[in-house]
Amino acid sequence: NPQLQLQFFITLYGQSEHLMVVRDVTRLQLLEQMRKDFVANVSHELRTPLTVITGYLETLLDNVDQINPRWLRPMQQMQQQAGRMQNLLNDLLMLARLEATEYPSDNQPVAVDLLLLSIRADAQALSGERQHRISLEADPHLKLKGSESELRSAFSNLVFNAVKYTPDEGEIQIRWWGNEQGGHLSVQDSGIGIEPRHISRLTERFYRVDASRASDTGGTGLGLAIVKHVLLRHHGRLDVISTVGQGSTFTCHFPHNQLVQRNAPNSRD
Ligand code: ADP
To answer: Which residues form the Histidine kinase domain (predicted)?
Structure first.
């Protein structure tokens, strides 16, 4: 009987009254764990058949001249949708992995400047003919303790979003710097922007401002949920400032104890 899981105590101390509510969440936690395990297992099990399907489709489409022209377009659509499903499974597995443990898989000083250099190259490739101008300013002496693969996943989600939601030839600025408050990484775009009422919900799983537009971009709706989890594990937090029609700035803030500062070599040395 689930009601047995809730217990209320009222305690009176002298003149003042205190109400103490003790709630047994054992069952809730068990259900939550079952949900996490279920999502992780299903994602894992779906991966293999999907790999077979995409593999065969790729082989068939490599021999275009042997395909009945009527089937070409449907097959290309099948390939595109299978790709979306693969992205979705990868993101679900990533979230499941992040939820399985409390701490990052690693705690080494990560060279954020080099990481961002490689993410910028990937973003420029993603932009392709859309020709976004992506600039990068990063302090090479400031490192961030944590897991490089987790941080790559979080930062690339922010940079790829900037590309996805910014019109062709738009401007994207990536920055990494430190000050008295800690370390900060910002991704600023000149894109479509976000209405204020959506901002607090952006990191919810599958939350999308405009579902039809977002699905055109090939996103999964899980990117910012991954960012939130990775930042939490690295004691960071996310700030979003946005103006519709002008652009957005996503900034990650990290406390001093997550940073490793190497002093710049003295120019007279
Ligand atoms: P998606 O895979 O849909 O991009 P995300 O979790 O990464 O999912 O982002 C959630 C939603 O937030 C997106 O669908 C989009 O509506 C909005 N969004 C994220 N980044 C930006 C941005 N840079 N500019 C405008 N909207 C954004």
So the answer is: 41-258
